[in-house]
């Protein structure tokens, strides 16, 4: 059972982390609109925004492909394709 749910949990956690970083960046841009231009808070927020933009989280599988929800769909598609081929060869 772990062989099925383990990779799913890893993929969802990686994707959730990427989505949260995007939400944080959006929040920084929204907050920046309400702050005075030359305030200390505005400078700190712009610094945080630059750090988030330059160091976005990217999860890969040994550098071969990125791990996200598209990986999950690709995994299901490939598994389904191989299952169909095995069934077709088994009936002939």
From TrEMBL:
It is found in: Cell membrane. This is Uncharacterized protein. The lineage of its organism: Eukaryota, Metazoa, Ecdysozoa, Arthropoda, Hexapoda. The keyword Membrane applies. It comes from the Eukaryota. Keywords: Cell membrane, Membrane, Receptor, Transducer, Transmembrane, Transmembrane helix. GO terms for biological process: chemosensory behavior; male courtship behavior; sensory perception of taste; signal transduction. Its main location: membrane. PANTHER family: GUSTATORY RECEPTOR 8A-RELATED (PTHR21143:SF104), INVERTEBRATE GUSTATORY RECEPTOR (PTHR21143). One of its GO terms (cellular component) is dendrite. It is a multi-pass membrane protein.
């Amino acid at each position: 059972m772990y062989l099925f749910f383990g990779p799913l949990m890893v993929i969802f956690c990686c994707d959730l982390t990427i989505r949260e970083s995007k939400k944080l960046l959006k929040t920084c841009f929204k907050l920046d609109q309400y702050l005075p231009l030359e305030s200390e808070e505005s400078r700190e927020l712009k610094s945080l925004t630059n750090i988030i933009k330059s160091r976005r989280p990217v999860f890969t599988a040994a550098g071969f492909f990125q791990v996200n929800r598209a990986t999950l769909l690709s995994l299901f598609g490939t598994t389904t394709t191989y299952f169909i081929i095995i069934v077709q060869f088994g009936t002939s």
